[in-house]
Backbone:
């Protein structure tokens, strides 16, 4: 009898606040482009596909708000593997224990109790795919024996930003875990480095579904009980399953490390023989760029004069830095970050300050992505708002109306199918229409090319909550 499948489970969550202003709620870290133009989530998917059997599903756990972003990304990265994608969608933000326990319940129900899960966070950068696959094979072997396996990174410095794992007795290809250690101070981290007995906790795991659930029953029965109730309350829904919101919200908000791994007695660690970068700050992003003779790292249109050891990323404008050193400068269309390179971890405090002010740059970019395409804000004033809309082929916006604003649509390129009130008609390039307040309207692209148009809103309020949807293809009514 053939062995049970090994199922990659990608955890695509996390706000990535230390990577503001590029990572935001509407487009968080897994979807942001790396210096090579690829996304972290796309790279993780490729890594998962490389090690999985061709008939095995690849599971992604993410927010329901990112369903369409994830589907669109996967269609670009792996168009031939779309049928293998299984999305487990969370209706609200929780933590890794609910995500992984529910994934194990799903795997047990669909693929049997001995199905092996290989859990991969979407924000890790690994280039040595062959080395990763070799370590994953060792982890799978230990997992099939019933062990809960984690991956440890041999430390290269006295890092205080990572948790540590102390190695215990030797096992085939790995070690039993003696203990997990929280992020240490500098002196303790130096001691760990010198001892050679400690590994960085990478947050990647491998275990059988039944072994993980049995451990959860012992170490966090409240998590298992509430997750089981959520699983039972959620109807099967093919390739995109959204957990029942009411029962999901009752699952304790706790990490898998605290809930299971640090309390279980059958945990093993496989030391990594591959490269690994936890993309958690701008310092990590800068490390991916080759420095010039002065130690500067730059991307986009940046000009550096007499600068040393700076990381400059220009997004929408030219950025010039003159006579400065040891700075991180990150520019986007609506925000600029300037920080000392040693203070990369403190960027999250900027986000906290902006959140206290309810500033829009915490959550949204100038360009916002929707299931039907995207829009870019060109002007946002007290008396009007101007957007450039891109509607993808075959997509349609909701049938909607507004109480406090009117709209003008002008087609820039493509053909728009428009409904205003009871009238339906086509708009070609350089044609426009007017939608009065309180008037039902809808916009559709029935062609096989992108539709671009300019939307001018006039009124006294332009918030997204002044959209009253009567019909919507994407379930947003």
Residues:
């Amino acid at each position: 009898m053939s062995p049970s499948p090994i199922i990659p489970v990608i955890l695509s969550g996390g706000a990535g606040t230390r990577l503001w202003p590029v990572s935001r709620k509407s487009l968080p870290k897994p979807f942001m482009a790396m210096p090579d133009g690829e996304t972290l989530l796309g790279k993780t998917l490729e890594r998962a596909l490389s090690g999985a059997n061709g008939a095995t599903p690849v599971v992604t756990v993410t927010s329901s708000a990112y369903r369409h972003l994830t589907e669109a990304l996967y269609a670009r990265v792996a168009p031939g593997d779309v049928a293998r994608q299984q999305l487990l969608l969370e209706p609200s933000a929780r933590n890794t224990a609910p995500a992984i326990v529910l994934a194990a319940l799903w795997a047990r129900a669909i693929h049997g109790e001995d199905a092996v899960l290989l859990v991969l966070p979407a924000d890790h950068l690994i280039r040595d795919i062959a080395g990763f696959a070799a370590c994953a094979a060792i982890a799978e072997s230990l997992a099939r024996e019933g062990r809960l396996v984690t991956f440890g990174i041999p430390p290269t410095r006295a890092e205080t930003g990572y948790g540590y794992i102390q190695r215990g007795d030797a096992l085939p290809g790995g070690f039993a875990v003696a203990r997990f250690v929280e992020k240490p101070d500098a002196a303790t981290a130096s001691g760990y480095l010198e001892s050679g007995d400690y590994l960085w906790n990478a947050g990647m795991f491998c275990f059988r579904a039944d072994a993980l659930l049995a451990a959860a029953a012992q170490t966090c029965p409240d998590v298992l009980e509430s997750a089981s109730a959520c699983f039972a309350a959620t109807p099967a829904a093919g390739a995109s399953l959204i957990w029942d919101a009411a029962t999901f919200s009752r699952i304790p908000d706790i990490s898998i490390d605290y809930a299971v791994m640090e309390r279980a007695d059958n945990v093993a660690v496989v030391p990594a023989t591959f490269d690994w970068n936890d993309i958690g700050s701008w310092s990590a992003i800068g490390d991916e760029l080759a420095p010039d003779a002065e130690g500067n790292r730059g991307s986009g249109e940046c000009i550096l004069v007499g600068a040393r050891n700076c990381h400059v990323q220009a997004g929408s404008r030219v950025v010039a830095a003159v006579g400065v050193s040891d700075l991180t400068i990150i520019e986007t269309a609506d925000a600029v970050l300037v920080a000392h390179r040693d203070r990369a971890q403190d960027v999250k405090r900027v986000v906290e300050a902006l959140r206290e002010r309810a500033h829009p740059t915490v959550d949204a970019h100038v360009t916002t992505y929707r299931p039907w395409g995207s829009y870019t804000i060109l002007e946002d004033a007290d008396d009007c708002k101007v957007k450039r809309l891109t509607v993808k082929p075959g997509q349609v916006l909701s049938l909607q109306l507004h109480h406090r604003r009117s709209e003008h649509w002008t087609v820039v390129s493509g053909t728009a199918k428009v409904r205003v009130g009871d009238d339906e008609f086509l708009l070609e390039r350089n044609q426009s229409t007017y939608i009065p307040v309180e008037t039902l309207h809808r916009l559709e692209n029935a062609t096989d090319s992108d539709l671009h148009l300019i939307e001018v809103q006039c009124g006294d309020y332009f918030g997204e909550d002044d959209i009253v949807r009567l019909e919507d293809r994407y379930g947003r009514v």
